[in-house]
Structures are given as structure tokens and as C-alpha cells.
Backbone:
């Protein structure tokens, strides 16, 4: 009797809670409305557009969880026809994005970090559909390079609304090709491709089950730093071969990776060239001394660091997996090329 009475009391309490939620607007809804009003304040509306908004599947938690819905609600509030894509994983989101972009919307907007920029780039590069970016990730390096507010989501949404009323900026994009099981694969990238120490750390972190969150990357960094060793590379840059023993190889279309590490600080998104960073093999102590200077782009002063500009690059090495825009690409060897004016961006 007591057990049944408690169950009935819980049911009654739950019913009351549900009825209360139906009658009273939630604090979250009120906050969302206030946020939308703040974003729209002072924004000049444009003619209605057909827009597709793709939201990071992993953004259902953390500080960025409200950004995607805020983007969709704000765009609809100013009269745009918005298709919102929210899928449980990147593969399904890519499939949904392909179908949506095939209908030739006026723009594709991605909400998330550099991984979402990579997804969007692979959906619209080589087409006339422009890419809008509302950063809500941890790195947001593409947004940094394009001058999009990367640490203030409301400012980023306002910037997107303004950009929708202007012609898109046309920038270069990179392509990477590789062979796997006898088949050739190809993928676009927009920001920075890495094939050295940082890529090795990423690969280890992705294999680890614990710990969860950002601390997993820090643990992987410590483990790889403890076993830091020279990597033998064979680089072919516009037909010229360079063999070197290095610690870090990065190919930049944009200037930074990893949340502001300016690995290729002089890279230009519109020059039709890629900046290839080559850091010679370093001792652990030398690497630790050099590493902090990368955040300011001052590592180029070191004589063991050089940047070579090229249009076509081949990187060959053993046991290294390349990453681009923070996403896993493929084990080396890989072939890279820049495609001038391949990507339209809303900035």
C-alpha cells in the first residue's frame, strides 16, 4: 500500500509538472526570445532567402548547445525560409546536406567548429552556393581567419545577417587525395592540413576511450611528447623533391589551427598558393621552447623553421595520419592541391 501510494503521488506530481509547463512559458524560451531581440536590434533585413542550416551533431551539450536553435529562430524571424538539419552523426548530416544543397539554396550555414566548416566546404566547394559560418566550437580557426566573431555567438549571428545582404567573398580551398584499398579518395579542406606532431597527438587522442573531453587531448599530448622522435619525410613541392627529418609539417590555406596557433601566419586565402611549414627535427627541450612561439607566429624566426609556397604538394612518410580542419583525412602518402576561388563564404 505504501509503495502504491508513493507511485500514485509521483504520477500526480509529474502530471502537475506537465500541466504547469503547458501553461507557463519556460525561462529558456523567454531567454531565447530576449536573445533573438538583442541580435535583431539594429540589423537591416534583406529579401527572403532559402537557407539551409546544418548544426553540429555533438552540440547537444555544453556552452554551444543553444547556438544552432538561435541561428534558425533568428533567420526565420527576419523572414528567411530555413531548412534546419540536425542529425545524430556527421555521416548522416553529410547525406542530408548533400540532398539539401542539390536543391540550390541561397546559402548553406554551418553551426559549430572547424569540423563543421570542413563538412560545409565539402558540400559547397566548387558550386555557387555560399557558406555561412556561425562558430560554436573550441578552435574556430576558420572563423578567426575570416574575421567572423568567434567568441560571441550573438555577434556572429548578427555578422551572418549582415553578410546575407552582400556578395559572398570568394576564396581558395584545398583538395587532398589518397589511395586506400586500391581506390582513390578525395576530400576538400579549407583551413590547415597537418601531418606532423599535432596530427600524431590527434590520432592518439581519437583512439583513447578515457579520459573524456578536452583532457583527453592533453593526456595524448603528454604521451606523445614523451616519445617525441624525428619523422622522415619526402615532400614534393610543385615538382621539386625535399627530403627532411622533421617534427612538424603543416599546409596552410589559412593562418592557424588548434584555437589560434599561427602555424602559417602569412597564408593568404586568395593568393592561389598553399604555405607549407617545415619544422626540422628537434629535441624535446627545443620543441618545448619553440612551441609557445607558434601562438604568435614568431616561430618563423627560428632557423630550423621554414615556409615554402606551392600549388601542388605530395607528403610521404611512414606511420603518420594527416588531419585537415581538425578532421581525420588519411595515412600518408597524400597529394594536395590548391583550387583557386573554389569556395564562396559569407563574411
Residues:
Amino acid at each position: 500500500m505504501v509503495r502504491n501510494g508513493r507511485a500514485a503521488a509521483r504520477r500526480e506530481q509529474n502530471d502537475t509538472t506537465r500541466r504547469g509547463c503547458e501553461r507557463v512559458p519556460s525561462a529558456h524560451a523567454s531567454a531565447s526570445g530576449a536573445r533573438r531581440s538583442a541580435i535583431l536590434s539594429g540589423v537591416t533585413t534583406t529579401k527572403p532567402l532559402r537557407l539551409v542550416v546544418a548544426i553540429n551533431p555533438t552540440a547537444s551539450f555544453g556552452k554551444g548547445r543553444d547556438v544552432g536553435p538561435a541561428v534558425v529562430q533568428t533567420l526565420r524571424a527576419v523572414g528567411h525560409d530555413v531548412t534546419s538539419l540536425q542529425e545524430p552523426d556527421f555521416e548522416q548530416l553529410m547525406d542530408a546536406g548533400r540532398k539539401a544543397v542539390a536543391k540550390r539554396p541561397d546559402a548553406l550555414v554551418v553551426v559549430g567548429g572547424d569540423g563543421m566548416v570542413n563538412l560545409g566546404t565539402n558540400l559547397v566547394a566548387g558550386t555557387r552556393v555560399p557558406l555561412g559560418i556561425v562558430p560554436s566550437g573550441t578552435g574556430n580557426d576558420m572563423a578567426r581567419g575570416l574575421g567572423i566573431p568567434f567568441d560571441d555567438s550573438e555577434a556572429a549571428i548578427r555578422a551572418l545577417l549582415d553578410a546575407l545582404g552582400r556578395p559572398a567573398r570568394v576564396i581558395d580551398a584545398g583538395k587532398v587525395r589518397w589511395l586506400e584499398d586500391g581506390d582513390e579518395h578525395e576530400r576538400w579542406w579549407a583551413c590547415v592540413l597537418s601531418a606532423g606532431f599535432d596530427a600524431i597527438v590527434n590520432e592518439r587522442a581519437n583512439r583513447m576511450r578515457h579520459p573524456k573531453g578536452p583532457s583527453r587531448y592533453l593526456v595524448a599530448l603528454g604521451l606523445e611528447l614523451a616519445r617525441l622522435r624525428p619523422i622522415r619525410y619526402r615532400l614534393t613541392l610543385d615538382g621539386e623533391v625535399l627530403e627532411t627529418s622533421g617534427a612538424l609539417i603543416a599546409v596552410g590555406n589559412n593562418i592557424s589551427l588548434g584555437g589560434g596557433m599561427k602555424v602559417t601566419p602569412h597564408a593568404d586565402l586568395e593568393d592561389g598558393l598553399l604555405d607549407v611549414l617545415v619544422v626540422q627535427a628537434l629535441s624535446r627541450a627545443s620543441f618545448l621552447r619553440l612551441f609557445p612561439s607558434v601562438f604568435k607566429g614568431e616561430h618563423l624566426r627560428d632557423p630550423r623553421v621554414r615556409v615554402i609556397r606551392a600549388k601542388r604538394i605530395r607528403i610521404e612518410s611512414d606511420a603518420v595520419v594527416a588531419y585537415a580542419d581538425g578532421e581525420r583525412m588519411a595515412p600518408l602518402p597524400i597529394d594536395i592541391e590548391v583550387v583557386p576561388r573554389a569556395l564562396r563564404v559569407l563574411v
The radius of gyration is 23 Å.
